[in-house]
Amino acid sequence: MRALISNDDGIFSPGLAALERAAAAAGFETFVVAPDREQSASSHALTMHRPLRVVKKAERQWTVDGTPTDCINLALCSVLARTPPDFVFSGINSGPNLGDDVTYSGTVACAFEGTLLGVRSIAFSLDYGPDRIPFDYTLAEDVAREVILYAKEHPPAEDTLWNVNIPHGKAKGIKATRMGRRRYGDNVVEKIDPRGKPYFWIGGVHVDTAVDGSDLMAVSEGYVSLTPLHLDLTNYRALADLAGLEAQMDGRIG
Ligand code: MN
User: Fold this and answer.
1) What spacing in Å lies between the alpha carbon of 9 and ligand 1's midpoint?
2) What is the structure's pLDDT at 202?
């Protein structure tokens, strides 16, 4: 089986090399198509207003001067069109993608794009250590390999990607979880640049809400978290609340 490996931390990230080794150890032939530089928090952006360059760096390894989504799209539609992968693996991200991080994450966006294009996809992220630097991917690599081995036998459901978050240090086990709640706010830094103009820097401090069974809860308790995500963002309960919309608006619109 073949695996496309990418990330949002760029081609030189040690997490990418760890994931490549994990996939190879799980029996995959690996193909890396990754951004040529850091692209964290690029979400599901696709580059549409300038050309993209693909550079072959080694056998089965290419870089793209674009976003993580560009990498997956180009890989599946062009670079690897003749050797289509069975899976997309993204990561291992330097830092977690928990709760609402998912909506900002380039790591998870790789898995979104893979899923949209019909390839089963898994995103892997490593939580920060005590000094906020997830410097050691050794244990995370072992976790990734085991999850990949499991996925070979029990692949994600159709239109569903797995968002896997790995705690720092040795995990107590793995939990299937739901997406929790995390927001970034109240910590924008405003300063003055050397030319007297103000600049702003969005802080990295987050506010988490405790949700039972969430990804945040599992990782904070020392477990690997695996959240199945789908791309249908519809709130079905809210759809029921709008039952009167069409009748009420009849004759006012259209
Ligand atoms: Mn990243």
Assistant:
1) 4
2) 86
Domain membership of residue 150 as a residue range: 2-181+210-249
Answer whether 97's CB lies under 8 Å from 14's CB: no
Please check whether residue 11 lies inside any domain of the structure. yes
Using only C-alpha atoms, what is the Rg of the chain? 20
Give the predicted TM-score (pTM) of the model: 0.95
CATH (domain of 43): 3.40.1210.10
CA of 253 to the centre of ligand 1 (A): 44
- Does residue 197 fall inside a structural domain? no
- What's the confidence (pLDDT) of residue 238? 95
What is residue 24's three-state secondary structure?
A: helix
Whether residue 198 lies inside any domain: the answer is no
Beta strands in the chain (DSSP E): 2-6, 29-35, 54-58, 61-64, 87-94, 120-126, 160-166, 174-176, 181-184, 189-192, 198-201, 206-209, 224-230
Dihedral of alpha carbons 26, 30, 33, 34, sign: positive
Residue 5: beta bridge partners? 32, 89
Q: For 146, which DSSP code?
A: H
CA of residue 251 to ligand 1 center, whole Å: 49
Ranges under pLDDT 70 in the chain: none
pLDDT tens-digit readout, 47-68: 999 999 999 999 999 999 999 9
Query: Residue 165 Cα, ligand 1 centroid: separation in angstroms?
Result: 13
Report yes or no on 243 lying in a domain.
yes
Domain count along the chain? 1
